[in-house]
Write a structure and sequence with these properties.
Elements lengths: L3 E2 L5 E5 L2 H11 L11 E11 L6 H15 L6 E2 L5 E5 L4 H11 E3 L6 H4 L10 E5 L4 E6 L6 H15 L24 H4 L8 H11 L24 E7 L2 H14 L3 H16 L9 E8 L19 E8 L5 H14 L3 H20 L11 E8 L7 E4 L2 E12 L6 E8 L2 E9 L5 H19 L5
Parallel strand pairs: 6-7, 12-15
Antiparallel strand pairs: 1-2, 2-5, 3-8, 3-14, 4-5, 7-8, 9-16, 10-11, 13-14, 15-16
Helix pairs in contact: 1-11, 2-5, 7-11, 9-10, 9-12
Length: 460
């Protein structure tokens, strides 16, 4: 499943991997509405320093974006018309490269922030970069089949490293186009050297993982607006940022308990689902996702930022019961995160993803009670992926904040969790047709109160 040149010179192709197929099926559910479920939206809020304060930043980022494509050509890969393979075309000349950049880079001059831009996104064959001058944000948007939340932050890191180089970037048309194809990202099945042929044992392991998705049936959810026929509108988000002092206390209290901050927040997200649920639904179990980045478990170079534009993530579902306490939940989640990823799991993953794809294809349209839970996705310490500053005080950028989220077209929502500049962040991402800003503000505030109470921490 490696990339190969087709009969057409300069055009390369490979089959879509099983994990990519599953994620693509989820995203494609929004296509009838001209939307893409789970498409990734991640941003870095930057401030230029020194000579870059007076630079033409839109032109500067446009050129850096073209260079980023040379480093990460999978940004320009697209789905072939047959829907079963990806295609990448080497730019034939400077005009072809400039045409791609014009399609994928834009400046949102009239937007106040990424919150104004994200609801306007529509499906695109390629990744996109939007510079928002009023907020100083660089917003990267891409289909989820291309990469994951960690990958997009790594791409923003590479972009800012390019944009802060001491010498001016060369005309991107002068780069040795054609050599970049060696950096096209493989499917995770090939990167992890997963068995190509399935066996009864692999099928059994895959089925056991797929069975965890049955926990979604009859699970707890929070109230939503409209009914089963209500169509989605724009994706919105509500962010809660802890102070550095409170964040330090949370980290220390989690360590003292022998649990990760992610497990502690996960327990609190579960608790907030119960707190906001209708009283009659609070005897239901709560189901959420245990997510893992696969990058640390891949051989080099696929474990490195050089392959940021690849989908290398996984997860499974976990159920907790209504009677569980915060202390019980945090230990359950810590146990799941402690498992890590084994070679046995990796060997089963091709079969797991293939069965998930089959499950998605066979699912009937949503019934009268669509799921409306709030899930969790943790990025961890963002500085492991993107720096606080680039270049020098004489010519560089300070990264003041970052954000991570996805397009949401369902009644479900996701709380994204990360720490940056010593501050813990909760970002509840939801669709405005189904949830109000007030409700989601209450949700993240409840997560905060449960987290502080559970850890015995006082807010500072």
């Amino acid at each position: 499943m490696t990339w190969r040149e087709t009969d057409q010179k300069g055009v390369f192709s490979r089959p879509i991997g099983e994990n990519e197929t599953f994620i693509k099926l989820v995203g494609d559910a929004g296509l009838p509405l001209n939307r893409e479920h789970w498409a990734i939206n991640s941003a870095a809020t930057i401030t230029p320093t020194g000579s870059l304060v007076s630079a033409d930043l839109p032109a500067h980022f446009r050129r850096a974006w073209a260079h980023l494509r040379f480093q990460h050509p999978s940004l320009a890969a697209e789905v072939a018309p047959d829907g079963t393979s990806f295609v990448y075309t080497v730019p034939a000349n400077g005009a072809a490269l400039d045409a791609w950049v014009s399609k994928t880079f834009s400046v949102a001059e009239h937007a106040n922030s990424s919150a104004d831009v994200i609801p306007t996104f529509r499906p695109s064959p390629y990744a996109k970069l939007v510079y928002i001058p009023r907020s100083g944000e660089l917003l990267c948007h891409t289909a989820h089949w291309r990469t994951d939340g960690i990958g997009v932050l790594l791409l923003l890191d590479a972009l800012l490293a390019l944009a802060s180089r001491p010498l001016p970037l060369l005309d991107p048309a002068s780069l040795p186009w054609g050599t970049e194809v060696d950096r096209l990202a493989p499917a995770v099945e090939d990167a992890a050297v997963m068995p190509k042929e399935s066996t009864s044992e692999l099928k059994e392991r895959g089925a056991a993982l797929v069975d965890t998705f049955s926990y979604a049936a009859g699970a707890l959810g929070i109230p939503y607006l409209g009914d089963a026929a209500t169509l989605p509108a724009g994706t919105r988000s509500t962010v809660l940022t802890f102070s550095p002092e409170t964040t330090e206390k949370i980290v220390a209290a989690s360590k003292a308990r022998g649990v990760s901050v992610t497990a502690a927040v996960h327990a609190s997200v579960g608790g907030a689902n119960y707190a906001l649920a209708d009283a009659a639904a609070r005897d239901k179990h709560y189901t959420s996702t245990i997510r893992f980045a696969l990058r640390p478990y891949l051989p080099e170079p696929y474990s490195t930022p050089a392959f940021a534009a690849g989908l290398y993530t996984t997860g499974w579902m976990k159920r907790i019961e209504a009677q569980s306490t915060w202390d019980e939940r945090v230990q359950i989640y810590q146990g799941e995160y402690r498992k890590g990823i084994t070679r046995e799991f990796l060997d089963s993953h091709r079969e797991y993803a293939a069965q998930l794809g089959a499950m998605i294809r066979s699912m009937a349209p949503g019934g009268d009670s669509p799921p409306s839970d709030v899930d969790i996705s943790s990025i961890g310490i963002a500085e492991n992926l993107i720096r606080r500053s680039y270049g020098t005080p004489e010519a560089g950028f300070e990264v003041k904040a970052i954000s991570v989220g996805v397009e949401i077209l369902s009644r479900q929502a996701v709380t994204f969790v990360w720490t940056f500049r010593n501050q813990l962040n909760l970002n509840a991402v939801y669709n405005e047709s189904f949830h109000s800003a007030d409700q989601m503000m209450e949700f993240v505030a409840t997560v905060k109160s449960q987290l502080l109470e559970g850890l015995g921490v006082r807010d500072s």
